[in-house]
Amino acid sequence: MRIGLLGCGNIGHIIAGHQENFTITALYDLIPEKAHELADISGGTPFEDFNAFIQADFDIVVEAASVRAVRQHGTEIISSGKDIVIMSVGALSDSVFRSALTGTARKLHRKIYIPSGAIMGLDNIKTGQISGLRKLLLKTTKSPESLGLVSSERRLIFSGKANECIKEFPKNVNVSVALSLAAGQEADVELWVDPKVDRNIHEIIIEGDFGDACIRVRNLPSPENPSTSYLAALSILTLLKNIDNPLVIGT
């Protein structure tokens, strides 16, 4: 499988270092130097013009850039006849954009893939699309510094729906949108800051006809960039590793 990498930051470097059943053949970043640097490592071809990048010979775009990049280029990528892996799933919190993107993909028989990101359990949470969940709550705890805040004690800084939270904290709660999309209903979100934590903590609490569950994930940062969850990067690699596997595990 040949991929085009949109975004050449830390996650892009992790992907480039694990080319097994795929190869990076094309790279694009708003900062051309990043694309050229990663091209030297990955063996792909860097592009400074997005239109030239999207016309290159590869099968699927892996987005590791930003919410803005998805909204700016997502429809164009699908329209070019390529599938897309979206890391910045917060872009899909906009229901109008999401509907247009999925509508284009359905019309052109293309696929939009969403990795699990910094959490676990999305496969079984999808049962909420069949039997509605009575409770779907994401409690996220981060250090004040990671949110650009100052706080001497643990405190709640947001409580509300996922689509509201992503507007206030667009770089920090992509997982809430992934949960909502998986379950087919809006997730409730609590965002806490705690000066005593040294990593991001995500707690998913669900209740439904199946019973109840609580999933707690304490994310270690990426070795090269403390602002990036290593699990999020690994989830993209896992998706790519299994994308063509005839044996599908999970719902």
Tally of distinct domains: 2
- At CATH level 2, the architecture of the largest domain is 3-Layer(aba) Sandwich
Classify the beta-strand content into a percent band. Answer: 25-35%
Overall outline: globular
Q: Please list the strands of the largest sheet in the order they lie side by side.
A: 3-2-1-4-5-6
Q: Helix and strand succession? A: EHEHEHEHEHEHEEHHEEEEEH
Number of helices: 9
Rounded average pLDDT: 93
Helix content: 25-40%
pLDDT < 50 runs, ≥5 residues: none
CATH superfamily annotation of the largest domain: NAD(P)-binding Rossmann-like Domain
Taking the sheet with the most strands, its summary is: 6 strands, parallel
Number of strands: 13
* Rg over CA atoms: 18 Å
Report how far the terminal alpha carbons are from each other: 24 Å
Summarize the structure in words.
With 251 residues, the protein is α/β, with parallel strands linked by helices. The chain folds into 2 domains: 2-113 and 233-242, Rossmann fold, CATH 3.40.50.720; 122-219, Dihydrodipicolinate Reductase, domain 2 (2-Layer Sandwich), CATH 3.30.360. The protein has 9 helices and 13 strands. The strands form 3 sheets. The protein has a 6-stranded parallel beta sheet, with helices on both faces. β12 and β13 (225-229) form a beta hairpin. α4 (67-79) packs parallel to α5. It is globular, with a radius of gyration of 18 Å. The two termini are 24 Å apart. The mean pLDDT is 93.
